[in-house]
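User: I'm putting together notes for a lab meeting next week and I want to include a structural view of one of the chains we've been expressing. I don't have a solved structure, so I'd like a prediction I can at least talk through. The sequence is below, exactly as it appears in our construct file.
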Amino acid sequence: MAESVYRVTEVIGVSDQGWEAAARSAVETAAKTVRGIRIAEVTRQDVTIENGAIVNYRVRLDISFKFEGGG
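Assistant: Thanks for the context. Below is the predicted structure for the 71-residue chain, given as structure tokens.
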């Protein structure tokens, strides 16, 4: 089995539509500049509240991608 090396980077997505939309936005935006994203793990979810109402959903994700030439 070939050896591989991966990097894990934290990204945060924000949406007024929900956590799923926030996660999708984070992954799609990261994928524009990071090649080979393999996994995204939700590490935290929170909301922004104004005047007693939720205005934004935030998702913190750890994304992992393989280093090129790493096996």
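A couple of points you could mention at the meeting. The chain has one domain: 6-66. Residues 3 and 47 are 39 Å apart (CA to CA).

User: Perfect, that's what I needed.
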